[in-house]
């Protein structure tokens, strides 16, 4: 299931992207370091759906065309397009921490009890 990230900037609330929930460590490192066409190719591969409204009010629904229309977007969306993906990947990283379980060689930790 994809992770939807919505833009909360006043006036731009109609914008959202859905980011793949499956990322490799390599893809995440690449996302943080590549630029230009390589960045947008990865972005379009990892963003499965979107609604990006350009300055004329036209909604872009295909992630593959967003790069071609960057010059038509409100400048407040430019950084949001990558920051939203990073927010989704941070959420995924946090899920990994939440699902961790502490095991101490089969030793069960006792719950403290109150002394009466």
What does this structure look like?
The protein has 116 residues and is of the alpha+beta class. It contains 4 helices and 4 strands. The protein has a 4-stranded antiparallel beta sheet with strand order 1-2-3-4. Strand 3 (47-53) and strand 4 (59-60) form a beta hairpin. It is globular, with a radius of gyration of 20 Å.
N- and C-termini, Cα separation: 50 Å
What class, by secondary structure content? alpha+beta
Number of strands: 4
Averaged pLDDT: 89
Outline the biggest β-sheet: 4 strands, antiparallel
Outline of the structure:
The chain is an alpha+beta fold. Helices cover 41% and strands 15% of the residues.
Keywords, please?
single chain, 116 residues, alpha+beta, four-stranded antiparallel sheet, 4 helices, 41% helix, 15% strand, globular
Present the secondary structure layout.
Layout: E1 3-6, E2 16-19, H1 25-33, H2 36-46, E3 47-53, E4 59-60, H3 63-66, H4 75-98
């Amino acid at each position: 299931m994809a992770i939807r990230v919505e833009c909360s900037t006043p006036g731009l609330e109609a914008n959202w992207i859905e980011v793949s929930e499956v990322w490799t460590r390599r893809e995440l490192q690449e996302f943080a370091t590549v630029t230009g066409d390589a960045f947008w190719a990865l972005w379009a591969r990892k963003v499965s759906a979107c609604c990006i409204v350009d300055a004329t009010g036209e909604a872009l629904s295909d992630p593959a065309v967003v790069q071609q229309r960057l010059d038509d977007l409100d400048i407040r969306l430019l950084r949001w397009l990558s920051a939203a993906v990073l927010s989704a990947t941070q959420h995924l990283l946090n899920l990994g921490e939440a699902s961790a379980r502490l095991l101490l060689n089969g030793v069960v930790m006792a719950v403290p009890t109150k002394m009466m």
